[in-house]
Amino acid sequence: MLHVSRNTKIVLGIVLALWGFLTFFPFIWMISASFKTNAEITSQGISIVPLEPTLNNFKELFDRLNFDVYLKNTVIVTLLSFTGLLINSMAGFGFARYDFKGKNVLFLAVLATMMIPSQVTMIPVYLMLTKMGLTNSYLGIVLPGLSSAFNIFLFRQFFENISEELFEAARLDGASEWFVFFRVGLPLSRPILAVQALLTFIGGWNSFLWPLIIANDQRFYTLSVGLQLLQGQHGTNYALQMAGATFMIIPILFLFIVFQKYILSGFDISGGK
Fold it and tell me: Residue 28 is part of which domain span?
């Protein structure tokens, strides 16, 4: 085992602390700038503490710039996206615990979709949803992202590492396959469900390109699209832009700080024997 001296640990700690501060400093300044006036931002240097803190930027976002509508849409899209957790977990369970003709070929086909850029499929998906009448709708925004090859792969790997004896014991007691999945498999997959739920929230909260494409009505725009509109309409109002960016990033930072151990440990896809 490599021995690291105390002095080396101190130097590494200082370097990592400085690097962490430099990485996080733009976020600190962004949050501080959201409470400043635009005149203070343009006239002062890179100061952290606002001279005259104000909440007018946030008030303007909701009173005049429809951020209440964008927030409602983002919350709805994010909540509907959680349906994909059930779909992906069921697919992963099926690939892991059942044998059927063409299983390996089908799983390879699912994995192959990970190599296809999402931009390639946007036009065909848009045309199909247009024919189905799902443009300018929450379902049209959410539907293409409900199934994910990466998430199916994670669930499949997790379920494959769980002992078959647990499922067989339930079947011997007369449990149906639905019972085996919902009462045995799904509760055991709580670690992977936790990390997938967090990633789903982040993906739904930050969704930009697809909502912009599928919705041409501002009533269905998400926060990311609204923030882009804000930058286009108020390009010189940096205080307003910082308030919008802060409003978007704070929930993500909060969730990461609170649940970081689940994010970091959730990719341990061993289910235990």
Answer: 6-59
